[in-house]
Amino acid sequence: MSTIGPFTVRPLDPEKDAELLHRWVTHPKAAFWMMQDATPRDVEREYARIAAHEHHHAYLGLHDGEPAFLMEKYDPRYVELVGLYEPLPGDVGMHFLVAPTDRPVHGFTRAVITAVMEELFADPATRRVVVEPDVGNKAVHALNEAVGFVPEREIDKPEKRALLCFCTREQFEAARGASA
Description:
This protein is α+β, with helices and mostly antiparallel strands. Helices cover 33% and strands 27% of the residues. It contains five helices and seven strands. The chain has helices spanning 14-25, 40-52, 108-121, 138-146, 169-179, and strands at residues 7-11, 56-63, 66-74, 91-98, 128-131, 150-156, 161-168. It has a seven-stranded mixed sheet, with helices on both faces. It is globular, with a radius of gyration of 16 Å. The relative contact order is 0.14.
C-alpha cells in the first residue's frame, strides 16, 4: 500500500499534453524512451498516432491531481511484440515513464509502477502484463522485479535489445504482499 498519495489516470490528449510530454521524453533521465531529439511536434504526432490506434493507448498519470507519469497500454498481439513471442489470452503490454523532478520523493517510482499495475489488473480480462525494457535499463529491471515481473529471455526489437518479462496477477499480488 502506497503512502505517497492517490494516483489517477486519464486518457492522454496528444495536442494539449504534447508540450508537457516533450519535456519528459527529452529529459536525460528518459534516455531509454528513445525520443531525446524529438521536437514538440514529433511528440504530438507520435501520441496522436497512438491515440488513433485501436490496440495502443496512452494515459497521463496524476499524483494529487498533478501530471506525474506517462502510461502506455497495448495489445502485444498487434503492437510492439508481434512475432517476438506467443501471446496468451489476457496479455497486456505496458510502458511507463515517471516525470523528471528536481525534488525526488523516496519510493515514488515504485509507487507509480504499483499504481500502473493496479490500473492494468483492474480490468478482469487482464491475466498477465508483459514488458520489454532495454536490456541495459537496470533501474527498471529492479522496479519490474519488485512488483512481480519475471524475466523470460532477451529479444531483438528493431530499436533495441530487450528483456521480455511477464507478471501474472498472482505474481503481482504476491509481490505486493511481500512489500506490505
